[in-house]
Amino acid sequence: MGGLRIHPLFAAVIGASLAATMPARPDAQQLPAPAVALPALTLPVVETAQVAQGRYLAVLGDCSGCHDRPGGQPYAGGVPLPTPFGTIYSANITPDRETGIGAWTAEDFWNAMHRGVRANGAKLYPAFPYPYFTHVTRPESDALYAYFRTVAPASYRPPANKLPFPLNIRFMVTFWNALNFKEDRAPTTGPSPGEHIVRGLGHCGACHTPKTLLGGDKADHALEGGKLDNWFAPALNSDARTGLGAWSEADVAEYLKTGRNARANGSASMADVITHSTSKMADTDLTGIAAYLKAQPNHAAAAATPAPDPKVMAIGEAIYVDECSACHAADGKAAPTYFPPLPGAAVTQSRDPTTVIRFILSGTQTVATDARPTPLSMPSYAWKLNDAQVAAVATYVRNSWGNAAPAVTASQVAGLRRKVAAKPVQKPSASI
Amino acid sequence: MATKLPSVDAVLIGFGWTGAIMAQELTEAGLNVLAIERGDWRDTPTDFSPAFAQDELRYYWRHELFQRLNHDTLTIRNKTSETALPMRQLGSFLLGSGVGGAGVHWNGQVWRFLPSDLKARSHNLERYGKKAVPDEMTIQDYGVSYEELEPHYDKFEYLCGVSGKAGNLKGVIQPGGDPFEGPREREYPNPPLDMPYAPSLFGKAAGELGRHPFPHPAANMSRAYTNPLGVQLGPCTYCGFCEKYACGNYAKASAQTTILPVLMRKKSFTLKTNSEVLKINLSADGKTATGVTYLDEKGQEFEQPAEMVVLSAYILHNVRLLLLSGIGKPYDPQTGEGVVGRNYAYQITSSVNVFFNDKILNPFVGAGALGTIVNDFNGDNFDHSGLGFIGGGYVGVLQTGARPIETHNTPDGVPKWGQAWKTAIARDYLKTATISTHGAVMAHRGNYLDLDPTYKDALGRPLLRMTFDYTDNEHRMSDYLTDRAAEIGKAMGGREIKTNYRKGSWDVVPYQTTHNTGGAIMGDDPKTSFTNKYLQSWDVPNLFVLGATAFPQNAGYNPTGTVAALVYYAADAIKARYLKAPHQPLVQV
Questions:
Q1: Which active-site residues of B does the annotation give?
Q2: CB-side exposure of B21: number of CA atoms within 13 Å?
C-alpha cells in the first residue's frame, strides 16, 4: 500500500492521535510524572499469560495497522491517517519514556482506551477509536498495557498533526464527544465473543458503518457500509445482495483468515486489516465474528433500481469482453479464490459505486497471506478508459448476471479520477 | 574501493528460474540467502499487466523484455578462421534480463529428456558403434541418469502446474500420451489444454501415418491451479502471447507466478536488483570462492562475502563470469583441452507450412505450448542405421498465436512484398497451419565460448565470444525431420505445402530458440567437465553452476524441464550432504 497507509479511523470528525501530545506547543505538552514508577524496559521479556493475552488482543485490535509505519520500529507510530479534516499521525505507543507511553500507568492506559483522555488529562482525537474501545474490559486493557510494556522502546516523535483551526484545539473534542461518545459505557462482555470483537477492539464499524456529518457513527445503521477516503467499505450484515447474506459463516472465516474465498478477494484498506489482524485471529474468534455479522439486520431503505440504459449496457459489455473477461470470464464467474466472481458480489452492487470505480481506475492487489501467498492483481485502466467508458463498464457489471445497482455516471468517475488516479499503481507505457 | 558487507550463507548470481528454485530450496534448509540480479524487479501487475501485455510492437519488435545490448552483448562468428563481431541486435535467440530472466518470456514448453539423451555418448556408441560418433563430435554422458532425475522433473512439473497427458506411467504405456517418454511416477498435475483446429488436424494425419501424436506438455494452465508452495496460477485465456512476452494473467509458470510470492515473504531471503556481479572472488589458493564483487545501481562497488556461491545467470553469462573470474581452465579448440567454454551447443529448427482453402484455423488463438506433437523421430526413438546422423527432434503443430506483425506465411512463388504478397496474406492468414521441427545439436570440437580479444562491455570487460556452426550431423538430422513433417503436412489435406529446410551456416538473424547450452558442462571427469553431477565445480567445491550451462550437448527437447530438474537434484545433494560437510566435494575422483 505504499507509505501512506489508509486506515479507517479518519472517519472521526477531528481525528488525531496520542502522538498529538508532541507537536504544536511542546512547552505545554510535557508529559506528567507517572503515578507509579515503572522499571526501564531493558530487561529480558517474560511472556506471562497476561502479556500473551495482550499480544493477541493487539492482533484483534489491529494496533499495528495504525501504529507501525513502514521502516519504523513496531508500534512507534507516525503513520499518516488522512481524514476529511486533515492529516493526523498515529502515536508512539512503545514504552519509551520520552516519546512513547513509557511513563503511563495501567490506569492511564485504561483512561485512554475507555475515556479517550491522555495521561495528562487532555482529550484524545477520536482517530484513536476509543468509542469502540469502551467495549474493552479492564482486564483486557491491563493485558494490552502489559504487552505494550514488553515491546522494544522506540525513541521517535511522530510529526505534528495537520489540522486546521479550530480543530487543532484539543478541547474541541469535548463537543464531539458530547454528540458521539458515551464515556464509561459499560463494557460489552457478551452476549457473544464475535460481538465483543466486532463492536470493540476490532472496530469494524470505523470503516463499515455510515457516518454522520460530524464523522460519528450512525448508530442505527451499524455495519451497513461506509464511505471513507475514496473507498466504500461494503455492508457487513445479512443483506443477500450487498452484505454477507449469501456468504456462509465458513466463507466469512476463510476470507478473514486467508484473504480470499470463493466470493471475494481482500484488497485495498482491508488488506492491512487482514495482514495485521484477522489472518492471525483464532479460528473460534473468526467463526464468532462471522456469526455476529451475518445476524446483523439491514435498515438501509432498498431504493428501487431503475433499469440501466441499454445503450450504456451495450458499450459496457463490449468493454467488459475486451478488457475484463480474460480474468473475470465472459459470464462473470471468473476463477473463485483466484479472480473474484462478479455475479452476486457485494462490492460490485453496493449502493455507493466508489469502490468498483476505483478498482477499475487504479487497479488493486489481493492481500497475500501465509495461507494464500499470491498477490493476484487487477491492473489500472485509468490510462486506457475514459470517464464514460469506466462508467459504462461499471454499470454493466453492476447490472448483469442477476446483479442490480444504480447506474454509474461519467461525472462520478471524473470526480473520483481527480482524487485517486494521480498515482496509478501500474506503469502504463513502455520505458524505452 | 569496494565496501565489504556482512557475510551470507549463500549468494546467488542471477535471479531467473534457476536462482529462484535454488533460493527457495536453500532458504527451506535454513540458509540466509542473497540473490543479486543485474536487471529490474518485474512483476505481473506492474510490468506485464493484461491491460497492455499483448503488445507485439513493444515487447517483441522493440525487445522490451530482453537484454539491453548497449550495455552488454556478445560477439559471434561461425568458425575460428573468422573475426567475431559484436551483436547490436539479436534474433536467433533472445536473452532475458531482470527478475525471472528469460523464464518470463518463454513459451512454457516443459519436457523431460529421454533416458538415452542423458547418456548420449555411451548409448550411441553401444547401439551404432564407433563410426557413429566421430572424433570431432565431443558428446558426453551427463553423469546423471533419468531415474535419478525423475522425482525432480516431477517436482518442477507440479511447481509449474504443467498441463499434459502422461504416456508412460511406471512403465505402462498410456493411451493419448507420449509412448516414447521415460517412465513417470504420476500423471501431470493438470489435464491438457483444449486443442485448436490446426493441431487437431495434425494429430489426425500423424495418427493415420502410424505416428504417435499427443498434446504438448505446457506450463500454460488448462485450469486454475495452486502449486505445492500454495502459489496460485490462473487459467490460460489462449491469448497467443507467451513466447517473447510475459503473461498478464498469471497463467504461465515463471519464477514470479510459482515461487516468488512465497520466497519474497521470507526474512532469510534478500534480493538486490540492478546490481551487476563483476567477479567471483577466490581464496589465495584458488580453491574456495569467498564471495562476489558487484556494482549497485549507483555504480558503487561492494564485496559480498559468502560461504557458498551459486552461479545462476543465463548460460552465456555464467560462462563469461567464470572466464572473467579466472575459474577453471579455458577451453582451447586446437588442443581440445580445457573446460570453460567447452561443448557449447544450441538447437536446430525448421518448418513446413500447410495452406488450406476451406479450413478456418483461427491461428491467433494460442498458447506457448499449445499443440500436438510426435516424438517418433526424437532422440533415439528410431533406428538411425544408415542415416548418417545421431539425435533427433520433435515434430508438431504448436499454435502459439499468430501475432499479426510477425506472422505472414506465404506459399512458394509469392513475392516478398507488394500487392501479390498482401493478397496472399489476406487469403491465407486464417488458413495456414505450421508444422515445426525442433532438433538436437550435438557438441562439436570447434563450437565453443571464450572471451573476445577486442570488444568490451560498458564496464570495460571483454565480451563473450561465441564460435558456432551447424555440422553435417545437424543438417542431415534436421532435413530428415523436415521430410517427416512434410509427409504429415501432405496428409493433412491442404491445398499445398511449403517446406522450409534449415540451410547453410547458423545465422544469428532469424529467430529459432533461446536454447543455448553448455560451456561449463557436468560430467564425471574433471578433465572434460567443469562440474560434477551435482553441478558443483570440481576446482572450487563451494561454487555451484546452474542452468543449461551444464548440458554436455543439447537434446531434441526444450531445455527448461531438464534445467530445473538438475537444480532440484543439486539442491537435494546440497541439503542432504554438502551442508553437513561444507566446502567438500560431493564426488571424489
A1: 515
A2: 32
Do B224 and A326 make contact, defined as CB atoms within 8 angstroms?
Answer: no
β-pairing, B432-439 vs B393-398, is: antiparallel
Q: Is A272 exposed, middle or buried (0-12, 13-18, 19+ CB in 10 A)?
A: buried
**Smallest CA–CA separation between B506 and chain A, in Å?**
30
Q: What is the pLDDT of residue A216?
A: 83
Residues 6+ apart with CB under 8 A from B362: B196, B197, B430
Distance CA A329, CA A335 (A): 8
Query: Which distant-in-sequence residues (6+ apart) come within 8 Å of A116 by Cβ?
Result: A123, A124, A126, A128, A130, A131, A173, A177, A181, A183
- Where b means 16+ CB within 10 Å and e means fewer, B152-191 reads bbbbbbbbbbbbbbbbbeeeeebeebbebbbbbeeebbbe
Across chain B, mean pLDDT equals 97
The whole-angstrom separation of Cα A418 and Cα A362 is 12
Bridge partners, residue B397, by sequence: B372, B435
Segment (H or E) for B353: strand B348-355
Q: What are phi and psi of B305, to 5 degrees?
A: -70, 150
Dist. CA A340–CA A354, nearest whole Å: 18
Take residue A283 and report the three cell numbers written for it.
479460528
SS3 B292: strand
Percent of chain A with pLDDT over 90: 65
Whether residue B70 lies within 8 A of chain A, CB to CB, comes out as no
Q: Work out the percent of chain B whose per-residue pLDDT is above 90.
A: 98
Query: Closest to B50 (Cβ–Cβ): which among A379, A431, A432?
Result: A379
C-alpha cell at B21: 528454485
pTM above 0.80, yes or no: yes
Give residue-wise pLDDT tens across range B77-97. 999 999 999 999 999 999 999
Residues 6+ apart with CB under 8 A from B447: B343, B344, B345, B467, B468, B469
Give pLDDT, residue A123.
80
State the sign of the Cα–Cα–Cα–Cα dihedral B340, B299, B97, B348.
negative
Alpha helices in B238-369 (DSSP H): 255-258, 260-263, 315-325
Torsion sign across C-alpha atoms A320, A323, A329, A333: negative
- Chain A: which residues have CB within 8 Å of chain B? 323, 326-327, 335, 337-339, 363, 365, 368, 370-381, 384, 425-432
For A174-321, strand residue ranges (E) read 226-228, 231-233
State the pLDDT at residue A301. Answer: 64
Chain A positions in Cβ-Cβ contact with residue B232 (cut-off 8 Å): 337-338, 372, 374, 376
